[in-house]
Structures are given as structure tokens and as C-alpha cells.
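Have a close read of this protein, sequence plus C-alpha cells, and explain what the C-alpha cells say about the fold. Thanks in advance:
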Amino acid sequence: MTEYGLIISQGRVADRTDGALAGARATGDALARYLDLEPTVVGTPEPSTDDDWTVSLPAAAATLDGLRDAVAAVLDDGRTPLLATNTCAASLGTLPTVAERYPDAVVLWIDAHGDFNTPATTGSGYLGGMVVAAACGLWDSGHGAGLDPSNVVLVGARDIDPAERELLDDAGVRILPPALSTPERVNSIVAGRPVWIHIDWDVLEPGFIPAAYRVADGLLPHEVASILAELPAGTVRGVELAEFEYDAPEAPSRVSLELVIETFQQLDRAQRHRGA
């Protein structure tokens, strides 16, 4: 049976909106109630600002170090990290640990974006769009690397910059657009190996769980839930739930929060049932 260690990110990590920190807190608190866990909270909220990665990265150092240490502590305790994070950039503090502890793990990056830009290719200067490339060693974030790009699978990806696409292709990252993001296809790639799951809720069709960036033609909630529910028993090594814009006007926060938890429950129940 899976035992989780719950971590809530509450430090600003390149947040350009105020809703994601509130979303991480709401998600973490709901997970704590569902699992009857006492969470570890990392960081202190600060207002959002539209800054460049050269500013937001050093400003987030303490939070990223804290997330790294919290994940390591959960793993050392023999539990599975479960993170409620504000931005994808928070994974700068987690993915290098995944690469170190589980070098053969498949990282399911369930996201509308590739997050594979570098300082040389980014047009926006947004740190969150550079996370996976940093973890794969294409640029130095100062927080480690080591992730094998051939073990990364972009699930539901559909908004990828041309220069970013070239980097992804050269690195050998698998890209599954929504039409190919099926449980069967994902499981054929996983092939029984350990799995680290990252979900940015912008992978969904807009209107279900609000995220900072709306991208049309996404996956539906039940499609994401089906992918999670069909993963082989005993393979999940960690889960990150990111980018829920709490109190966003396009969807009621209470309904969206219930959908976040219900999606996680599909994974949790399947893993518990199969691992019993």
C-alpha cells in the first residue's frame, strides 16, 4: 500500500499570477484531509510579479532548496512524495532528486507545454518554461540536473515553440499530443518502469481547472484520470500537482478543487487496490 509524504509549496517560484500559491495551498489542504496526513509546508507566499528568469531564479533559491530537502526526506522515510506546487518551476527543486534516486524512472510531464526552453531560446524569459531542459542538463539552473531526456514523456503537449521543438527532437524527448495521450500508449512507453508524475492543469481543455495559461484542444479530466488509473501497480515514485489558479474567474474554485482531488483519487485507489 502506498504511503505518501505530503509537501505543499508556498514560496514564490517565478509566479506571474497570485492564484497558483492559493491553489497549491487549497490542494495540499484537501489532500491532507483525504489522506489524513500532516503536510510539510515549504516557503512563504509573496506577491506575483512579471520578472525575467534571471531575477526569479535566485529569488526562489530557498524554496527550491527546501523542496529538494523535503522530497529527499520523504524518500529516505520510505514514502512516496506527493506535492502540491504553485508553478512548474518548482520542479527545478525536485527533478534532479528523481534523476539521482530513480535514474531509470519515466517522467510523465502531463502539460500543455514542453517546458524545454533554455536561456538561449526563451522568448518570454519565463522560468517555468525552462524547467525540464534544466533538469536534463541543457542549461545550468544551479539546482542540479541528471535527468535522461529519453525518459521524459510530454503527455497532452500541444503548445511548443519552434526552437523548443528542435531541442526536444534533438534530445529524444517523447511528445504525445492529446490525440495520442491514451493509457495504452503511455503504458507501452512506461513498460513497467518507475514513474514520476507531474501534472500542470493547463493540460486540460480550458474550463475545468483554471491555470495561468489557457491552451485550447486539451485533454478532458476523465482522460487524465484514465491514464493515472491504468499505470502499473507499484510503479509510481512521486506525484506533483501544479498550476491550479484558485479563485480564477472562469471556473468555481470549489468545483475545480473537487476535480483536482477526484483525479488524484483515481491514481491512489488504483495503486492501493492493485498493491493490496
About this structure: The two ends are 6 Å apart (CA to CA). The beta strands are 4-9, 40-42, 80-85, 106-110, 152-155, 174-176, 195-200, 236-242. Residues 253-275 form the longest helix (23 residues). The mean pLDDT is 96.
